[in-house]
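Researcher: Here's a chain I'd like modeled. Treat it as a single chain, no partners, no ligands.
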Amino acid sequence: MTEKHTIWLIVGFTGQLVFTMRFVLQWIATEKAKNSVIPVAFWYLSIIGSLLLLSYAVFRGDPVFILGQLFGVIVYSRNLHFIGRHKKNENTK
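Model: Modeled as a single isolated chain. Structure tokens:
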């Protein structure tokens, strides 16, 4: 295995780890609140993990993986947009 492939494997595994941590974060927040909770950090971890995985997918040249991660980045970004807009509206009241 070349050094280039090793670096991309590290990127891929790091992306998967970050992506998985969002579920751990959500689980902890939900257990603490005793109610289903999705913290804002969930969406940031989703974007970071998805971008890392997208980078890895581009390196691998996998169009299915690329499309899936691109779609996710759009959805996660949109959620953060709505959260920010909601907070802005609450602060102007």
